Structures are given as C-alpha cells and as structure tokens.
Amino acid sequence: MVNNMNNTSNTSTSSYSYLQYKNKVTGLASGMDIDSLMEKLMKAESAQMEKLQQQKQKYEWKRDAYREVNTSLSAFEKGIFDNYGLSKNWAAKNVTSTSTAISATANSNAAGNLTITEATVATAGQKVSSSATLADLGFSATNGTFTYKIDGQEKSIAYSKTDTFDSLAKKLNATGDFEVTVTNGSNGATINTKIKKDIEATGNNLVFLNKLRLTDGNQSVSGKLAFTESTTMSELGLTDGGEFTIKAINDQGTYTEKTIKYSATDKISDVMSRINGSGVGVTALAANGKLSLSANSTGTGAEGSIKISADGNKLFEKLGLADATGKVAEGTNGSMVVNGVKMESTSNKYNVSGYTVNVTNNIAATDAPAKISSTTETKTIVDKVKEFITTYNGLIEDLNKRVSQKKNLSYQPLTDAQKAELKDDEIKKWEDKAKEGLLKSDATLKKVLSDMRSTLSNYGSGSEDMLAKIGITTSKTWTDNGKLELDEGKLTKALEEDPNIVSRIFVGDKENNREGIVASLRTTAQNAVKDIEKTAGKASSAEDSYTLGKNLKDVNTKIDDWKDRLKGIEERYWKQFAAMEAAIQKANSQSSIFTQ
C-alpha cells in the first residue's frame, strides 16, 4: 500500500500480479492457496527490479524537466528577437506632414525635419484601348485615300490605319454626303451610317465602302464594328488560336516573363484573366467596352514597363494595346526635392534620414512645401521596456523555482503494483509530489542563471550605453534572485535626452560595432540550450547521444536482465510447490491404505 495517500477505492485484492504464469499448481492436495503464496514470494523477489524501474522513472522525469527548460529558453530567445531585437520594434515615432500629397513613417533613428518643395509621382506603364482602328478591320497597313464620285464630282477622304470609328465618322460627316454616328456602349461600339445620295466607287474604294457597310445607298445601316470583352479570337480572325509572351516586374520585384496560350474559341476576357493569373506583375481588365493593361510596378525602363513578344498573330496590335515592336507602355520615375536636394526613384517611396516618405500626389514648385517632422512616443517605448523586463523576469522566476524547490523524499515513483491500487487522479497527485525538486541545486541551471546575470551586468562596459543609464537594474532583494527592476523616471529622462538610446542598447550600435543586449542574451540562451541537450538531449536524439539517455539505456538493460532472472526464480518456485503437492498426494494415498 502507498504511504501518505488516502485511498477510498481500494479493494481487498489488487488487480496487479507479479506472476508470469498462473495456476500451474492447484494446491488441491495441500489445501494451500498456492497463487497467493507465489504472489508474496515473487513480490519480495521483485523488490530490486522495482527499485530499478523507479530509478528509470526518475531519469525520464528529469530528462523531461530539462527539456521543458530548453523549450522555455528557446521560446525566450526567439521571442525577444522578434519583439525587441529589431530596429522597427523601437520605431515609436509620431510623424506629422503638412501636406496630403506626402505621408511618412519613421524608424528609431529618424531625426530632424524634412521640407519637400517639389514632388512628382512615379507612374506605372498603362495602355487603354476602347475601340478598334481601321487596321483592326483589315485596312491596309499604310495610310490611304478613299475616293468616290457623287453627282459626277470626284471627292477624296484621307484616312490613317490608326483612325478609330469616331475619327473616321468626323471625316465622313464633314463631306456632307454621309451621316455617321458612333455609339460606344457596354457591348462595344455601334456605327450607324446613312448615305445622302447615290455615290460611285470602284476597286479598293468599293472595298472601303463594303467594310464600313456604306454600300446600301440611302438606307440606314447599323452594325457592331468594335470588339468587346466577349469577342472571340476567331471573330478577330485568329481561327487557329495562338500564344504570346508578356514581360513585366512581378510582385516579388523580379523581371519575369510568362507565355500564355489561347484557342480560337477563347474570348478576350479569357485572355485577360490568364494574364492576371500568371503572376507576371500586370493587371489586365476587360469591361464596358474597354481594355487595359497596367504594370503593377512604377518607373521607367523595365521597372514599370510591359512588353509583349512572340505574338505571331499580333493579337495585341489588333486590340490596340501594343505597337509593332510589342511595347505596351512604360511608366515614369518619380522625383522630389527634399531640403534642397533632388532625389529620383522608380517608386514613390524614399528613405531619407530615418524617414520612409511616400509621395501620393505631385507638388509643384509654386505649391506650398510639405514639411515632415517627428517626435518620440516616450510612453510607448517605456511600456515596451516594461514588457521586456516582465518576459525576462518570468524566465528567471521559473529557473529559480526549479533549482530551489525541495525534494519530497516521502514520495517516490509509484510501482506498477501501487498504480493498480489507485485512481488516475490519485496517481497524478502523487506523481506531481514525486516530481518536486527534480532539479534542486542543479549545476547546469545555476550556470544558466549566472550567465544571464553576467550578460546583463557586463553589457555596455566602457561605454555610455549601459542598462543602468536607462533605469534597468538588478533587484537588491535576494529572494528575487536576479530579476530586473525599472526606474521609469530615469528611462523617460534618458529618452528625452537621447531618443535613440533604447534602440542602441537593445538592437545594437553599428557605428561602434557593438551588438545589442538582445543579441547577447540570445547567445547566452542558445549556449544554455546546447549545454542542457548534452544532458537531456531532445525528442529526436538517440539515447547514446546524451547523458540521461545513456543512463536510461543502462537501467533498461538491468531491468530486462531482472525480468529474465525473475522468470527463472518463478519457475523454480512452481517446481518446488509441484513437488510438495505430489509428495502430499502420495502420502495421502499411502495413509489411505492403512485405514482400509
């Protein structure tokens, strides 16, 4: 029965058995309870093995306790880097701009004021097409002249392959012989034509009239002559389908190209969707009778341009979105004059004196300048320093508790027989007590605590940037065992005198080639993790690679040896009881002869 444990659910007979064989001898001749006797004998014989099993449990608990510490140390070092080890963590600046055309943010090193007297927004390459040109309708690639006769008088109209329906309609209407109206709607452009008098045209001039549906004399003719987003490739004359390559700067900032294929039945909107889904860095739209291609990046050259190549069918020329060389559009660089210095950029973002400036609208030299300034948000930085101290103190408190907690010698690991007598919650309560003090006065953890304190106390030696200068000191209360304290007033004053001091201390001082306190603590924590792994390994470690693993392997071997030994002892006892039973039965048989 387990000491110091009140158990109300015990039964008179434990469900646990020390026997590997049962009922090998019945005890009918002797009248003895052989099974009960064997249980007692084997319990006594198993005492040494149970001590080994308890030792194994202690090794496992200690290994797990070390690994819990390593989990805490790893979380600590990663957490302080993410939250306190980067310049952006301390960029608590309140930035003001006097112009809606300029916005800005500031990192911890932002200083001084900026005055922007001129600014030009960088643009992305963009091309919009809203109606087909004469070239799209199959007119000659060169400029031409339409000649016709009316009332015996010859007249001519010069046209260009780049003329649209609108521009051509104006030229025709100017003669007084035609009434042409063009309506651009969601389904494309509709041309309505009417010839006031009979006209004569031959050869190519007649072809011209046919293409514009102007050969019906005085009748009014309407027809859809422009493409829309629903127009198919075959309707554009591309009955065999085709492919093209499109190039631009993608969202990752890399100049890239994608080849896109299309079939005769594909609509223009299908092709545009494939461009959008290619990840090439171009936004393609087809809606309300208009088409457009826009680069997602701004700037001249490759930065904000779109280029079409390998377009054997000249699809994008037909759509009015590219010239004969495949050039769609090119963006423009941005610029600004800040504190009298002109700067250019392919984007609308500039990094100046710790500020990140975004230009959203143009500022002319005659406009009021944009003035940018910043102030340190002292309270935000103070609160963040307090968060760091809370994080550090939490780790120190956990480590100190582990090395100072007393062992409870009255609670040893439970044997399998003892567990069989208890409920699950009783087992947990017992084992929680038995685990107390596993790392009492542990040399490895005491070294971790010492190294942490040393890292903090030695930081900034020989410089002005010491923790004490910003109000961080070690508690003088001995029971705190190295916890940190903060003098908020001293920290606030230090920030007022030097807004960048906290960033230099936590992140590092590049000018003086000095790493920050966060980097120093991370190194200390990482070294501690490595030291502990030598003793306790990690989940993926082989047992032979760490000290406790070797101990576990050794004790498991001894336990296996004992199991084999106990099997032999039990066999011997069974044989002895069997012999006793046989002797008693023989004696009983002999005595029965004399009583007859």
**Cα radius of gyration in angstroms:** 45 Å
Task: Note poorly predicted spans.
Answer: 3-13, 215-226
Oligomeric state: single chain
Q: Can you summarize the main beta sheet? A: 5 strands, antiparallel
Helix percent band:
25-40%
- Contiguous helical run count: 14
Helix/sheet category: alpha+beta
Shape: elongated
Give me the count of strands: 24
Straight-line distance between termini: 51 Å
Strand-residue fraction?
15-25%
Strand order of the largest sheet: 1-20-3-16-17
Kindly report the average pLDDT value.
84
What does the model show?
Strand 12 (282-287) and strand 13 (290-298) form a beta hairpin. This protein has a 5-stranded antiparallel β-sheet, with no helix packed on it. It has helices spanning 34-45, 47-84, 165-174, 203-211, 268-277, 315-318, 378-404, 416-419, 424-434, 443-458, 488-497, 501-507, 517-536, 547-594; strands spanning 93-97, 102-106, 114-120, 124-129, 144-150, 153-159, 178-185, 188-195, 221-224, 242-249, 255-262, 282-287, 290-298, 306-309, 327-329, 334-338, 341-345, 349-352, 355-359, 370-376, 472-474, 484-486, 508-509, 514-515. It has 14 helices and 24 strands. Helix 1 packs antiparallel against helix 14. It is α+β, with helices and mostly antiparallel strands and 596 residues long. The model is unreliable at 3-13 and 215-226 (pLDDT under 50). The radius of gyration is 45 Å and the shape is elongated. Helices cover 38% and strands 22% of the residues.
